[in-house]
Design brief:
Blueprint (H helix, E strand, L loop, with lengths): L2 E8 L1 H5 L3 H10 L3 E8 L3 H7 L9 H8 L4 E9 L1 H9 L12 H5 L8 E3 L3 H11 L8
Antiparallel strand pairs: 1-3, 1-4, 2-3
The structure holds adenosine-3',5'-cyclic-monophosphate.
Adenosine-3',5'-cyclic-monophosphate binds next to loops.
Protein backbone atom coordinates (compact mmCIF):
# COMPACT_ATOMS: atom_id res chain seq x y z
CA UNK A 1 0.00 0.00 0.00
CA UNK A 2 1.63 3.33 -1.00
CA UNK A 3 2.28 5.93 1.68
CA UNK A 4 -0.10 8.88 1.30
CA UNK A 5 -0.88 12.15 3.02
CA UNK A 6 -4.30 13.45 3.87
CA UNK A 7 -5.72 16.50 5.59
CA UNK A 8 -7.65 15.99 8.82
CA UNK A 9 -9.58 18.68 10.69
CA UNK A 10 -10.75 18.49 14.27
CA UNK A 11 -13.71 20.81 13.78
CA UNK A 12 -14.80 23.67 16.07
CA UNK A 13 -17.50 21.56 17.79
CA UNK A 14 -14.95 18.96 18.89
CA UNK A 15 -12.35 21.55 19.97
CA UNK A 16 -15.05 23.44 21.94
CA UNK A 17 -16.08 20.21 23.68
CA UNK A 18 -12.41 19.48 24.53
CA UNK A 19 -12.37 16.29 22.50
CA UNK A 20 -9.30 17.27 20.48
CA UNK A 21 -6.89 15.32 22.67
CA UNK A 22 -8.95 12.13 22.44
CA UNK A 23 -9.32 12.46 18.70
CA UNK A 24 -5.60 13.03 18.16
CA UNK A 25 -4.89 10.03 20.39
CA UNK A 26 -7.19 7.93 18.19
CA UNK A 27 -5.30 9.17 15.13
CA UNK A 28 -1.95 8.14 16.60
CA UNK A 29 -3.23 4.80 17.88
CA UNK A 30 -4.49 4.00 14.38
CA UNK A 31 -0.91 4.27 13.10
CA UNK A 32 -0.87 7.68 11.41
CA UNK A 33 2.20 9.87 11.61
CA UNK A 34 1.37 13.53 12.25
CA UNK A 35 3.50 15.45 9.74
CA UNK A 36 1.99 18.91 10.30
CA UNK A 37 -0.47 20.46 12.75
CA UNK A 38 -1.95 23.95 13.39
CA UNK A 39 -4.68 25.50 15.51
CA UNK A 40 -6.65 27.82 13.22
CA UNK A 41 -9.65 30.06 13.70
CA UNK A 42 -10.93 30.40 10.15
CA UNK A 43 -12.59 33.51 8.86
CA UNK A 44 -15.88 32.97 7.06
CA UNK A 45 -14.07 33.73 3.81
CA UNK A 46 -11.36 31.14 4.53
CA UNK A 47 -14.02 28.53 5.29
CA UNK A 48 -15.77 29.42 2.03
CA UNK A 49 -12.51 28.96 0.13
CA UNK A 50 -11.84 25.62 1.75
CA UNK A 51 -15.33 24.28 1.02
CA UNK A 52 -15.68 25.96 -2.40
CA UNK A 53 -16.74 22.65 -4.02
CA UNK A 54 -19.89 22.79 -1.87
CA UNK A 55 -20.80 26.43 -2.67
CA UNK A 56 -24.02 25.48 -4.48
CA UNK A 57 -25.23 23.23 -1.65
CA UNK A 58 -28.09 24.40 0.55
CA UNK A 59 -25.97 23.89 3.67
CA UNK A 60 -23.00 26.00 2.45
CA UNK A 61 -23.79 29.16 4.44
CA UNK A 62 -24.46 27.24 7.62
CA UNK A 63 -21.40 25.00 7.15
CA UNK A 64 -19.03 27.92 6.63
CA UNK A 65 -20.50 29.80 9.63
CA UNK A 66 -19.98 26.70 11.77
CA UNK A 67 -16.43 26.16 10.50
CA UNK A 68 -15.56 29.78 11.36
CA UNK A 69 -17.31 29.68 14.76
CA UNK A 70 -14.18 28.85 16.79
CA UNK A 71 -10.75 27.28 16.66
CA UNK A 72 -10.16 24.08 14.73
CA UNK A 73 -7.08 21.88 14.46
CA UNK A 74 -5.77 21.02 11.01
CA UNK A 75 -3.38 18.09 10.60
CA UNK A 76 -1.32 16.61 7.81
CA UNK A 77 -1.46 12.83 8.36
CA UNK A 78 0.72 10.22 6.73
CA UNK A 79 0.18 6.46 6.50
CA UNK A 80 -0.17 3.72 3.93
CA UNK A 81 -3.58 4.30 2.29
CA UNK A 82 -4.01 7.40 4.51
CA UNK A 83 -6.98 8.93 2.66
CA UNK A 84 -9.22 5.87 2.89
CA UNK A 85 -7.89 4.87 6.31
CA UNK A 86 -8.77 8.26 7.87
CA UNK A 87 -12.23 8.28 6.28
CA UNK A 88 -12.88 4.82 7.74
CA UNK A 89 -11.71 5.90 11.20
CA UNK A 90 -13.97 9.01 11.03
CA UNK A 91 -17.08 7.09 9.92
CA UNK A 92 -19.98 8.34 7.81
CA UNK A 93 -20.61 12.09 7.43
CA UNK A 94 -23.82 11.80 9.46
CA UNK A 95 -22.88 10.63 12.97
CA UNK A 96 -26.27 8.91 13.23
CA UNK A 97 -25.21 6.65 10.35
CA UNK A 98 -21.57 6.21 11.36
CA UNK A 99 -20.29 2.80 12.43
CA UNK A 100 -19.97 2.06 16.14
CA UNK A 101 -16.44 2.86 17.28
CA UNK A 102 -15.91 5.53 14.64
CA UNK A 103 -14.87 9.04 15.67
CA UNK A 104 -17.98 10.74 14.29
CA UNK A 105 -20.22 8.21 16.05
CA UNK A 106 -18.47 8.96 19.34
CA UNK A 107 -17.96 12.73 19.06
CA UNK A 108 -20.29 14.07 16.34
CA UNK A 109 -23.68 15.48 17.25
CA UNK A 110 -25.25 16.24 13.84
CA UNK A 111 -24.48 15.98 10.12
CA UNK A 112 -22.95 19.48 10.30
CA UNK A 113 -21.37 19.27 13.76
CA UNK A 114 -19.64 16.02 12.88
CA UNK A 115 -16.36 16.52 14.78
CA UNK A 116 -13.89 15.86 11.96
CA UNK A 117 -13.15 16.32 8.28
CA UNK A 118 -11.00 14.29 5.93
CA UNK A 119 -9.97 14.66 2.30
CA UNK A 120 -12.05 12.45 -0.02
CA UNK A 121 -9.44 11.69 -2.69
CA UNK A 122 -5.87 12.33 -3.86
CA UNK A 123 -6.67 15.58 -5.71
CA UNK A 124 -8.68 16.91 -2.78
CA UNK A 125 -5.89 15.98 -0.34
CA UNK A 126 -3.35 17.91 -2.42
CA UNK A 127 -5.63 20.99 -2.51
CA UNK A 128 -6.56 20.79 1.17
CA UNK A 129 -3.00 20.21 2.45
CA UNK A 130 -1.86 23.14 0.31
CA UNK A 131 -4.69 25.30 1.66
CA UNK A 132 -3.48 25.03 5.25
CA UNK A 133 0.20 24.21 4.79
CA UNK A 134 1.30 26.15 1.72
CA UNK A 135 4.86 25.46 0.69
CA UNK A 136 5.57 23.36 3.76
CA UNK A 137 8.36 20.81 3.93
CA UNK A 138 6.47 18.16 5.89
CA UNK A 139 8.34 17.14 9.05
CA UNK A 140 9.94 13.68 9.05
P1 LIG B 1 -17.14 17.29 5.71
O1 LIG B 1 -16.62 15.91 5.60
O2 LIG B 1 -16.28 18.32 6.34
O3 LIG B 1 -17.56 17.80 4.26
C1 LIG B 1 -18.57 18.74 4.04
C2 LIG B 1 -19.34 19.04 5.28
O4 LIG B 1 -20.61 19.60 5.05
C3 LIG B 1 -19.64 17.75 6.03
O5 LIG B 1 -18.48 17.22 6.58
C4 LIG B 1 -20.69 18.21 6.99
O6 LIG B 1 -20.13 18.91 8.10
C5 LIG B 1 -21.44 19.20 6.12
N1 LIG B 1 -22.63 18.58 5.54
C6 LIG B 1 -22.68 17.61 4.64
N2 LIG B 1 -23.94 17.31 4.31
C7 LIG B 1 -24.69 18.14 5.03
C8 LIG B 1 -26.08 18.32 5.15
N3 LIG B 1 -26.95 17.59 4.44
N4 LIG B 1 -26.52 19.26 5.98
C9 LIG B 1 -25.63 20.01 6.68
N5 LIG B 1 -24.29 19.88 6.61
C10 LIG B 1 -23.84 18.94 5.80
Amino acid sequence: MPTERTLAIVKPDAVRARHAGHIIQRIEEAGFQIRAMRLVHLTKREAEGFYAVHRERPFFASLTSFMSSGPAIVLGLEAPDAIRKWRTLMGATDPAKADPGSIRKEFGTSIENNATHGSDGADTAAFELGYFFPGIQFAR
